[in-house]
Amino acid sequence: MEINANFGQQVSELARSDNRTGGIGKEVSATARTSKELQNRALLDASLNVSIDAGNRSLELLYRTAIEKLNEVLAQDMGANVLRDALDSDLDVSPEATADRILTLSTAYLPLYLEQHPGQNEGDGHAQFTDLIRDGIGQGFAEAREILQGLGVLEGDIADNIDRTWTLVQLGLDAFLGKTAEEDSV
Question: How far is CA 68 from the centre of its chain?
Fold first, then answer.
């Protein structure tokens, strides 16, 4: 299916046509309808493909959405897209591996965050950094769930795996905060 994206060119050709009999309004309307129908069909096909693929790769979608949201949250302090380079095509998308990647990538920026906030007590800096990334991760999970719900695939194993990933990430952030608090007291 080919979508003719140059509607203006088609209208110009109709206006210059030698074999027209009167106005071109009906022909323009027919051309516009055909163009719109082709676009709608292409959108439906693409949407169906995304829906099917999203069901098969829901944790990858979750991971990517969480990383995008973390990029937004961390951009002010650490620059744009600090985590985007971490996306691979050969991802293990189990809840454990996804949670581990989210935790590893997000917590790795603590030293840079502390460097960007030099007047801050280290313990407070750790807590504020953890709150910052926890909020970003939460927003990413919420957006991923919304996308998957909209695609009609947030159920069964997919929903269970996302819930498991969320729990593992929260436990990991708690452990990270506890570990940094222990290091501060030494």
Answer: 5
Cα 65 off chain centre by:
3
Residues 6+ apart with CB under 8 A from 28: 11, 14
One-letter amino acid identity for 157?
D
CA–CA separation, 30 and 27 (whole Å): 5
| Chain Cα centroid distance, residue 184 | 35
Which residue in the block uniquely carries the two structure tokens 């309307």?
29
Write the CATH number of the domain with boundaries 57-185.
Answer: 1.10.132
pLDDT tens across the length of the chain (186 residues): 444 445 556 556 655 665 555 555 556 556 666 666 666 566 655 554 554 455 556 666 766 777 677 667 666 665 565 555 544 445 577 899 889 989 998 999 899 889 988 888 888 999 999 999 999 999 989 988 888 888 787 888 889 999 999 999 999 999 999 876 666 665
Torsion of CA 146, 148, 151, 154, to 10 degrees: -110
- In contact, 147 and 97? CB cutoff 8 Å: no
The residue among 67, 103, 74, 94 whose CA lies nearest residue 175 is 103
pTM exceeds 0.70, yes or no: no
